[in-house]
Amino acid sequence: MLVSYKWLNEMLDLSQVSAEELADKMSRTGIEVEEVKIPEQGLKKIVVGDVKECVPHPDSDHLSICQVDVGEDELYQIVCGAPNVEAGKKVIVAMPNSRITGNTKIKKGKMRGVVSMGMLCSLDELGYSDSVVPKEFSDGIYIMPEEAIPGEPVFSYLDMDDAIIELSITPNRADALSMRGVAYEVGAIYRQTPSFSSKVLTEDTNEKASDYISAIVENKEDVPNYRVRIIKDITVKPSPVWLQNRLMNEGIRPVNNIVDVTNFVLLLFGQPMHAFDYEKIGSKEIVVRRGQQDEKIVTLDEQERQVTPENIVVTNGQTPIALAGIMGGYDSEITSKTTTVVLEAATFAGVITRKSAKQFGLRSESSSRFEKGINLDTVQEALEYAAAMIAELGDGRVVAGEVVASETKAPETQVAITLSKINRSLGTALTVKEVNDILEALGFEFVETNEAYVVSIPGRRWDISIEADIIEEVARIYGYDNLPSTLPSGEALPGALTTEQALVRTIRESLEGNGVSEAISYALTTETKATQFTVRPEPVVALQSPMSEDHGILRQSLITGLLEDVAYNVARKNTDLALYEIGKVFSLVDGQKLPKETRHLALAMTGLTKQATWQESKVPVDFYVIKGALESIFNTLGLSQAIKFEGTAEFPQMHPGRTAKIMAGDTMLGMVGQIHPLSAKAYDVPETYVAELNLDALLEVESTGIVYQAVSKFPAMSRDMALLVDTTVSNQELIDVIRANGGKFLQDVKLFDIFQGEKLGLNKKSMAYSLTFLNREATLVDEDVTKATDKIQAALVEEFSVEIR
Questions:
Q1: In the listed set 406, 432, 452, which residue is the last one of a domain according to the structure?
Q2: How far apart are CA 670 and CA 661, in angstroms?
Q3: Would you say 472 is a known binding-site residue?
Q4: Residue 25's domain is classified under what CATH number?
Q5: What total number of domains does the chain contain?
Q6: Is 473 known as a binding-site position?
Q7: Same domain, yes or no: 550 and 692
Q8: With bands split at pLDDT 50, 70 and 90, how would you rate the model's confidence at 591?
Q9: Domain housing 6
Q10: Residue 463 annotated as lining a ligand binding site
């Protein structure tokens, strides 16, 4: 909302308050001010000029040489290319060494060999947006009013010396989307009662509005208010300069005296209006109803639009002539030939208006006000004001009476509250007199009995309905900066991480210590991707109103997001990647309204883990690199003995021979492995290895802990053994048997060699292990170690029919 400081001064006495001070005060009482802009700032030496002579340039078919009176002894010769420049017109002149918008300096120069002493300006060159410049001046210079005096600065004629205050209005304060609403707010701040100008409505009693037109509203819930007036014998012409200036400063393009009045009243009352050409309506009735299938309307922007039963339309009884609350119809617009106007003032259902505006991409000043709310008590007053103003500026006559199809007044709202409740909520010690002064400043009627209030809320403040609203109003006007500062009472406790938070931080530190970087991906994806990389996809959680088809379903796996991150980086030549993400996945559970949220940990690696140097060869990422990153986490958490890896082919998007389940006992925590080549192609990524864990389940696994011991005083002994086994036997299975039979002195088991070849036989492999034994209380002897290794070998032969090599 743009607020004119000059206009506000007509309603209140702000002579002792600057625009900047006012903006600061408003920001501190609840309505945020984005900026205060004075249009003339930055402009210099721009004056009124009177074109005395205008002749074509001899060397150009579009330039003119003008002799311009700028209030000095001699005329200034200025070359101008505007098509609308002519002798006898008052214009805007940028003198030599002047500054126009963009801090551009205008110098004396030559154009096609002719000296030019400055420049004739359009409004664009003074900083006005193309969207607010009147169409008659959009392709040329601006013509000043006849009363403008040559040589005087143009700023006062264009109201560029005004201060424009831009307010950021929250949805609950739609009452401030009008000058009258802002005046009430400022009046409360400075303890003033605003005064508003009025228009005397003189009616032509020889005729009645009902003789011209009838109006019907089919559903009063859709259209709580609908009333029209008839103004006849009007002359459509440009609005007075003061009105055009006011609209342009408020960001609205002047059109003509009829349309400009509806926009002026929109700004003044916050009441949207629309004017129809009576002769073009095509009937003597107006019917406001829902749209029908296959109905179409050509709107004022000359676009044909298909309406639906979800839209409200104004019709002539047969066909639509306006999209209610959004835009009028092209066929009934006001033109220079219009002589009789049907002026509409209404309120339309906010939700329907918002959805329709979104449907047609036509959000406007009118629709935004209908969405947020209208003062129901001033619909009739605004209509009368606008009708009188149109008659005044258009030299017309207002036909007696108005046609009312529906009428709804603001509900009588009363809120009861006590002084103690106000003080207790704000931490203040306000007196009855102080609260009375604040309520009077707000313009709220009230009854106070023994420090108990019953406050009557005016129709213009439909945002107030409960105690908390009254408390907020008192706090705003009393001043937030006047509220006492108090520290919270109670015992202060030192902050600390929970056990779970500490474990998650440990996991992050472990991964980042291994060179893995954190990524954050969208939780929303497509329905196809949502259930990928899961063993058993569950019912998905879909948004009712997604931003796009690609972001309509909540994910059930983090891997899909990481693969998109990998693809994004690889496409930009960043090919060596190690990423992790900790986030939530979502699924529907039978019998629950809200989705189940589970925290997961996922990794993705691709490219090289070590670059080639003169000493070493490059090392690509493989299964064991990502498995090692996971094992580092498990070791740090003290879970290395509790978690096992088991080969699997259960995941359809994973490579069946390079994927393992991560198990804690009989519970599957997740998986790790290479994504299937077809999946890699679908995501447009190279060979990539991923892992995903149910982090919530991982944190519940009982840790064996990390036991710190002094270095043993006695030496350790090691034994190597090579086993010839079937290729179907896994390393984990062999290690489990070795540890189960190794006795209490077995400290560590390491696989140091794997070999397969024709010499070993079909479906056979050789696995070589190094076993470390240690007795911390005495020196080990060969007999103890030999006895343990014999027992291990016997168990391996019995369990897997191994051959000891």
A1: 406
A2: 6
A3: yes
A4: 3.30.56.10
A5: 6
A6: yes
A7: yes
A8: low
A9: 2-38+163-189
A10: yes
The pLDDT of residue 440 is above 90: yes
Assess whether 398 and 532 both reside in one domain: no
- Same domain flag for 248 and 369: yes
Whether 345 and 211 share a structural domain? yes
Rounded-to-integer distance, Cα 277 and Cα 275, Å: 7
799 is in an annotated binding site: no
Dist CA 734 CA 737 (whole Å): 5
Domain end, chosen from 674, 700, 726, is at: 700
Q: Is residue 772 part of a domain?
A: yes
Asked whether the beta carbons of 367 and 312 are under 8 A apart, the reply is no
Give yes or no for residue 571 having a pLDDT over 80.
yes
Count other Cβ atoms within 10 Å, centred on residue 40: 18
Structure tokens belonging to residue 735: 């290690």
* Domain assignment present for 119: yes
Q: Is residue 591 part of a domain?
A: yes
Token pair 């926009």: residue: 263
Per-residue pLDDT reduced to its tens digit, 458-500: 999 999 999 999 999 999 999 988 998 877 777 777 788 888 8
CB atoms within 10 A of CB 328: 24
In whole angstroms, how far apart are CA 2 and each of 8, 33, 179, 246, 250?
11, 10, 9, 11, 5
The residue-averaged pLDDT of 150-177 equals 93
**Cα 246 to Cα 124: distance, rounded to the nearest angstrom:** 17
Average pLDDT value for residue range 209-235: 95
Mean pLDDT for 615-624 is: 90
Query: Which residue from 766, 705, 767, 774 is spatially nearest to 735, judged by alpha carbons?
Result: 767
The tokens of 245 are what?
Answer: 């200036």
Q: How far is CA 42 from the centre of its chain?
A: 33
